[in-house]
């Protein structure tokens, strides 16, 4: 059996945080519930950032303490609902919430920290230098780990920066090495402005390994500004050996510092591409070992029985989540696969209605 690729769903956090209209706690909770119902088990639930800077995430405590998420945590022992924590104040807020709402399992078992690979982006996003942001993390990570929380780390603008242009791989590789040395269990390399192509990812991963960062500790976080995210994901998995991919339902997201930058690579597109290449993912039951097996259900045709049918049904559920959240946000579904699946389903439904009308007309004769 092929190795499983872990999908980290970032839509409820990274995807929604740039939405201009404030979204209700109920919508965020329902989105997470639908994503978990579609098979995802690693879903970012929000962030503990200043409401002044990211008002969309002010409701994160309400999301985490909702009865719905409590039920989901009790039902799915493997469910992880990580939150982003940018600094000591954010960690203090999270720990205070955990103390006020003790539960088993806890509200969350994981947090993420983030650092920029470039000075320009660090100044714009964090109002500090790269070295200062790194220096502030060790006590935060130690405190989180002492409370039993796993710590994941993000590195932003690893391939291109809206302020400095092309980023040489030595910069993000050095940052990733420091983050692992501090105790992060994994480093997610973020192509924040979506300029990445397979060759650039290969140079970056090779440099990370040269600096002592094993590929088993890396995740790929691709944005799709120039339409190359899926090809980069496939290269990262099939050629470079990365086994964790960040993605966002319906391609929600963006970058406020990079005009024209679109959202994260769509979860639906990633799952579809990996499935057709024969890769198992944490979003679907394992496929057969043989590469190139037909996933007719993923193309909108009738589902087959058995395990194959389970996979197809689960994938259709995932695509419907993308449709739902896009409709609720009043925006076009950013997933190409999602739009194609919706079109095929609507055509099938029209054909079925026409057939029913013809049969009804014959019955009246």
UniProtKB/TrEMBL annotation:
NCBIfam families: PRK05692.1
GO terms of molecular function: hydroxymethylglutaryl-CoA lyase activity; metal ion binding
Annotated segments matching region Disordered: 332-365
Protein name, entry field: hydroxymethylglutaryl-CoA lyase
Membrane-crossing segments per the record: none
Family statement drawn from the similarity comment of this UniProt entry: Belongs to the HMG-CoA lyase family.
Keyword entries, A-Z: Lyase, Metal-binding
Pathway the protein contributes to: Metabolic intermediate metabolism; (S)-3-hydroxy-3-methylglutaryl-CoA degradation; acetoacetate from (S)-3-hydroxy-3-methylglutaryl-CoA: step 1/1
UniProt-listed Enzyme Commission number(s): 4.1.3.4
Positions of the Pyruvate carboxyltransferase domain: 5-291
CDD domains, A to Z: DRE_TIM_HMGL
Source organism of this protein record: Rhodotorula paludigena
Reaction it catalyzes: (3S)-3-hydroxy-3-methylglutaryl-CoA = acetoacetate + acetyl-CoA
């Amino acid at each position: 059996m092929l190795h499983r690729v872990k999908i980290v769903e970032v839509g409820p956090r990274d995807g929604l945080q740039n939405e201009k209209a404030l979204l209700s706690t109920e919508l965020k909770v329902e989105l997470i519930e639908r994503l978990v119902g579609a098979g995802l088990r690693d879903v970012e639930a929000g962030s503990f950032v200043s409401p002044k800077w990211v008002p969309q995430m002010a409701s994160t405590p309400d999301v985490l303490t909702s009865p719905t998420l409590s039920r989901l945590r009790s039902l799915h022992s493997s469910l992880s609902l990580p939150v982003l924590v940018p600094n000591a104040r954010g960690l203090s807020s999270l720990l205070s919430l955990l103390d006020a709402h003790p539960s088993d399992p806890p509200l969350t078992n994981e947090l993420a920290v983030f650092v920029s690979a470039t000075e320009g982006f660090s100044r714009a996003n964090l109002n500090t230098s790269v070295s200062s942001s790194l220096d502030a993390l060790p006590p935060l990570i130690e405190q989180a780990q002492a409370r039993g929380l796993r710590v994941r780390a993000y590195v932003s603008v690893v391939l291109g920066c809206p302020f400095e242009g092309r980023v040489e791989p030595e910069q993000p590789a050095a940052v990733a090495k420091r983050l692992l040395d501090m105790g992060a269990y994994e480093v997610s390399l973020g192509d924040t402005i979506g300029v990445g192509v397979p060759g650039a990812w290969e140079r970056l991963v090779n440099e990370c390994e040269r600096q002592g960062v094993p590929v088993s500790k890396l995740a790929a976080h691709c944005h799709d500004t120039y339409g190359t995210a899926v090809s980069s994901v496939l290269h990262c998995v099939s050629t470079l050996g990365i086994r964790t991919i960040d993605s966002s339902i319906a391609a929600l997201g963006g970058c406020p510092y990079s005009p024209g930058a679109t959202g994260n690579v769509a979860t639906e597109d990633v799952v579809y591409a990996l499935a057709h290449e024969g890769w198992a993912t944490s979003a679907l039951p394992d496929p057969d070992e043989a590469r190139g097996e037909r996933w007719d259900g993923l193309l909108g045709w009738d589902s087959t029985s058995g395990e194959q049918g389970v996979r197809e049904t689960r994938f259709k559920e995932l695509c419907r989540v993308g449709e739902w959240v896009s409709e609720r946000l009043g925006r076009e579904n950013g997933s190409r696969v999602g739009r194609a699946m919706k079109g095929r389903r609507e055509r099938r439904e029209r054909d079925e209605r026409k057939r029913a009308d013809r049969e009804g007309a014959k019955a009246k004769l």
